[in-house]
Amino acid sequence: MRVDVDIPGKHYPIHLGRNLIANAQLYPEGARNGRAFVITNDTVAPLYLNQVQAALGDQLPVHVMPDGERFKSMEQLSAVLDKMLALKLGRDTTIIALGGGVVGDLAGFAAAVYQRGIPLVQIPTTLLSQVDSSVGGKTAVNHPLGKNMIGAFHQPDCVLTDLNTLDTLPAREFKAGVAEVIKYGLLGDIDFFTWLESHMEALLARDGETLSHAIATSCRHKAQVVSADEKEKGQRALLNLGHTFGHAIEAHLEYRDWLHGEAVATGMCMAAELSQRHGWISRADCQRVDALISKAGLPTAVPSGLSAERMRALMQGDKKTAAGRVRLVLFRALGDALLSADYDDALLMQTLQHYCRD
Amino acid sequence: MRVDVDIPGKHYPIHLGRNLIANAQLYPEGARNGRAFVITNDTVAPLYLNQVQAALGDQLPVHVMPDGERFKSMEQLSAVLDKMLALKLGRDTTIIALGGGVVGDLAGFAAAVYQRGIPLVQIPTTLLSQVDSSVGGKTAVNHPLGKNMIGAFHQPDCVLTDLNTLDTLPAREFKAGVAEVIKYGLLGDIDFFTWLESHMEALLARDGETLSHAIATSCRHKAQVVSADEKEKGQRALLNLGHTFGHAIEAHLEYRDWLHGEAVATGMCMAAELSQRHGWISRADCQRVDALISKAGLPTAVPSGLSAERMRALMQGDKKTAAGRVRLVLFRALGDALLSADYDDALLMQTLQHYCRD
């Protein structure tokens, strides 16, 4: 299966299926001719690096980084760039990002800045990166003062989404990816949301056909949004549904304990609650959101020890602000999200107090 | 005077004239409303920072870096980004690059990667940066293993080319900028080259009208080339006329002693010589090139201690290669350059031996 991303000046395919990584024909010509550099981590390399080598040869230079979000740093980026320059890799080298979101974001940023930009192939190996970060060209590293603070937009030349990689994904990480799948239904496709309500068991069981439909639908939504608004001037910000609340939770936990998708899951419940308090959606709508997120085994409540005041302050620190006021992705209706700074601050505080009751 | 740069998805003006820096109306609205961050150096700040403050206010946060090419580094970039994050500057902040090419390239790269890209105003204060680096969106820092190896394409929102800044520019730096002015005539505008032959004295005397015509014509050529080929897939590479030879000279000197424009000047003579040896231009054409470069007070011979073999090797290290073979910008005729890998290696070695006679 193939989903196309069509951005002004850049058109590329997402290939979706099984046994894709070892299929040389799916890679750009330069990479097939030996001009490639693989970036992966020490969890993924033992599992899938040999398949990239089967496609592109054993002599490929490889950078294996340690697994973990804290290695999505300027230091690790410098280590990658140093190695590429020491190998005298030219501007015609393709970077192959083999791993989850951390590898994809860092490798993508390396591709964005190495000699002012070189080709990139994303091979996402987690559900989260398959439905989210591998598509759309956002790349970044973290900074001690904030996540994704240093980065660039750099579209890949193609994305290879090999469903086989999900066979080895731990259950908790899989569910964190499901949060982003639910997000696409919630923000713009009520039919998909309804489909998820009746197919969640099959999805969690990683049934092939269900998985394939869920990922392809998610990628199509992401591709459509990114095609319309690559640089996040408008519509693309809708993809941050649940993220401003979620980032506050993650910051409170110092990016430990909870996975990103888990924080987004609770964040989506909070966005629904705030919308309901404005009278934009019904109490029954809110309950549907909570029910599906619970069914996916994802959290619907904030972690303990986080006060409403502290959460409000952490939300202010989020970078998606316009002239100082935090804009939030809220609901006109389930399946119809909007980005708004036009919400009632008192209702926001009530929502936070409702969730932060410790 | 105003020259427009029209790149797909990005249109911006180069304002050219006197007393522009203190004119608030020329800055983007966000910057006028206090959302700006100035990057400059310790040579330029005492001369022109007060004019930026006159336009945008005294409270502007400023980063003053030390003057010099060696500060165009990842370390200095990190220092800038650290400061911007510590100040909690949002994505609506405009970076104001006040200085020559080093400040412009580093500040431009910071604007390219801060929160995945923020607005940028270039205020070039040297002739070289006015006719070259401030226009076209190439940004970068150097790496111990090569110049401009880490960077991005990031177009400014506007360029303020204030001719007053040239009043304080040392003569040697002014002449180095003239090398790039001559380049535009040589690569695509024989009439401008001929005009320069008869106006070089006035240009070196910094006569206002002559200066204005020379800079505007150069900017128009740069804008036209960049509009047609932002990412240097083809035509833009012609702007590297003299640069592959020049970079070899600079690398030999470890980027000391000679200014970039001086190395490019000699490099243009060498490109003419190699073209003449292929029979593409005449001996008289070569002599015209040498004569104008000499008249500008620029070098037409390589520095001592550089052998032909060493120079050939240094040219190989330049990044503008396709599948291993160095492409050179050569002449079909004076005023008509082409990028070619289709030159005779023996004639290239003869040219290098002709120049490297020590």
Automatic annotation (TrEMBL), chains A, B:
Subcellular compartments: Cytoplasm
Boundaries of every 3-dehydroquinate synthase C-terminal domain copy: 177-321
Pathway named in the protein's UniProt entry: Metabolic intermediate biosynthesis; chorismate biosynthesis; chorismate from D-erythrose 4-phosphate and phosphoenolpyruvate: step 2/7
SUPFAM superfamilies per UniProt: Dehydroquinate synthase-like (SSF56796)
GO CC terms, sorted: cytoplasm
InterPro entries: Dehydroquinate_synthase, DHQ_synth_AroB, DHQ_synth_fam, DHQS/DOIS_N, DHQS_C
One Pfam family recorded for the sequence: DHQ_synthase
Top enzyme class: lyase
Keyword Cytoplasm included in the entry's annotation: yes
Molecular-function GO terms, alphabetical: 3-dehydroquinate synthase activity; metal ion binding; nucleotide binding
Transmembrane segment boundaries: none
Catalytic activity: 7-phospho-2-dehydro-3-deoxy-D-arabino-heptonate = 3-dehydroquinate + phosphate
Family: Belongs to the sugar phosphate cyclases superfamily. Dehydroquinate synthase family.
Entry function: Catalyzes the conversion of 3-deoxy-D-arabino-heptulosonate 7-phosphate (DAHP) to dehydroquinate (DHQ).
The protein's name: 3-dehydroquinate synthase
Organism in which the protein naturally occurs: Oceanococcus atlanticus
Gene (UniProt): aroB
